Amino acid sequence: MDTSLRCVMDAQERLDAVNDTFAKRAADLEREGRQQRAPLLRERGVAAKRIPGFWMCALQGHPLLEQYISARDASILEHLTALEVSALSDTDAGFTITLSFSANRFFTNPILEKTLRYAGDAALSMEATPIAWTAASSGGGEEEAPHGEAATFLTAFAWTNGDTKCLLSGTGQAESAGLAEAEAFCEAIKEDVYAHPLRFFERFSCSEGAGDPTAA
Question: Which terminus of the chain, N or C, has less C-beta within 10 A?
Answer without folding.
Answer: C
